[in-house]
Write a structure and sequence with these properties.
This protein has 407 residues and is an alpha/beta fold. It contains 13 helices and 16 strands. Bound molecules: zinc ion. Zinc ion binds next to loops.
């Protein structure tokens, strides 16, 4: 239901309800992207002082006191994949060393004192906020980010990550993550927190099974097919991950290859109506996508493909198969990943990197991925992602290839 004050009434051909600049603000720009489409012709976006959208009207009906800008108005961005707790690793890990070296570096460098971590997270949050991000899907391995999120202007979905490739340790790992999740729920009672598998190469079948039972109907995240080695592991029990297990002293004698790609091997482990936020998908094939189609709407409620192009360039110097995913009608969203594998935490920079490497993809399409699709993926579609009446999506000005916040 729209707020009574937000309902426009035409009198003598003019909209009169939004006259009060004390109650309302009116914005226009060269273009308005609604979250779904770029509006043709000149329009004016009207919202109340809290940023709640009241209306979107033609210029002729907007009355006076309009704030006018050069550029494009857009709803706030949703960053569907981040690890805010790794913010202190900015600039610490060399680029283009491959995923296995990257994972080992993160494990070796992630410890730091609490003050350093919090100061880095505050800085990262500031960058996210000023860059136009309004909501984040955030991976949490620890409770480190709870203090930050207690007073945050951003909306967070916390994915409490579980890993462990040795079957025998599955229950212990699962219970430890469950305890972390309890702390998030107790201390951040308004924020959703769901357990999520880290990646197919780091979660045993037993652990997948525990997660599957526990997350029925929930939103979960997983790092999927980020490197070619992940498919090598499942198809042939070969490739670079064997080096990782050896270096970490993990005995994988009990693991046998499935002869299938990673995705075809792990996805059947999740079959209780979960919504899956599948992150990276750099080595996902058309056959994998067709496999996803056979379970979506049945064992799996919905499946979103999160693209973190700068992280792919940073870690592996590779590109995700965007044209294939788009042509297959996949639901795409945007993530920055963490400072460990990115030069910044800025959704606009992700869109610019995609535009640079995939110039044929329409800009409007990219904005949709960064706004309404991200909001839908995080279950925030009723509040964020578009300029529909009653939502409070944030209002951005996109100008000179930068995003800034108007509200
Ligand atoms: Zn990640």
């Amino acid at each position: 239901m729209p707020h009574p004050q937000s309902r426009a009434t035409a009198q003598g051909g003019k909209i009169t309800s939004y006259q009060s600049i004390i109650l309302f603000r009116k914005f226009t720009a060269d273009q308005i992207f609604t979250g779904l489409e770029m509006l043709p012709g000149q329009h004016v976006l009207i919202c109340n002082r809290d940023g709640e959208i009241a209306d979107l009207v033609s210029m002729a009906d907007a009355g006076d006191d309009i704030e006018s800008f050069q550029g494009t108005l857009s709803p706030g961005f949703v960053n569907a994949h981040c690890h805010i707790e790794l913010s202190h690793l900015k600039g610490k890990i060399p680029e283009r060393q491959g995923l296995v070296n990257f994972v080992q570096q993160v494990m070796a460098l992630r410890e730091a004192d609490a003050e350093t971590k919090l100061a880095s997270m505050i800085q990262a949050e500031q960058e996210l906020f000023t860059g136009g991000t309004v909501a984040i899907g955030d991976i949490c391995n620890t409770t480190d980010s709870i203090a930050l999120k207690m007073n945050s202007p951003l909306q967070w979905h916390n994915f409490i990550e579980v890993s462990g490739f040795v079957e025998a340790g599955a229950e212990k790992r699962f219970n430890a993550a469950g305890e972390i999740r309890q702390q998030f729920i107790q201390q951040l009672s308004t924020m959703p927190a769901t357990l999520s598998p880290h990646a197919p190469y780091s979660v045993s079948e037993k652990l997948f099974s525990l997660l599957n039972e526990h997350t029925a109907g929930q939103l979960i995240s997983i790092h999927n097919q980020e490197s070619p080695a992940e498919n090598d592991l499942y198809e042939k029990k070969s490739g670079d991950f064997l080096r990782l297990y050896e270096n970490m002293g993990i005995d994988i004698t009990a693991f046998s290859a499935t002869g299938q790609t990673s995705l075809k091997s792990w996805l059947p482990n999740i079959n209780k109506n979960q919504t899956i936020l599948s992150v990276h998908n750099t080595h996902t094939s058309i056959a994998d996508v067709e496999f996803i189609e056979t379970v979506t709407g049945k064992e799996v409620k919905d499946y979103f493909f999160c693209i973190c192009i700068n992280a792919n360039l940073y870690i592996e110097n590779s590109l995700p198969p965007l044209e294939m995913l788009m042509n297959k009608g996949c639901k795409m969203v945007i993530g920055t990943d963490s400072y460990a594998s990115n030069w910044q935490l800025n959704v606009m920079e992700e869109l610019k990197a995609i535009r640079k490497h995939f110039p044929a993809i329409p800009w409007e399409q990219l904005l949709r991925w960064a706004t309404i699709n991200g909001a839908m993926a995080l279950g925030l579609g009723d509040r964020l992602g578009s300029f529909d009446r009653g939502k409070k999506p944030g209002i951005l000005l996109l100008s000179d290839d930068k995003a800034s916040r108007l509200l």
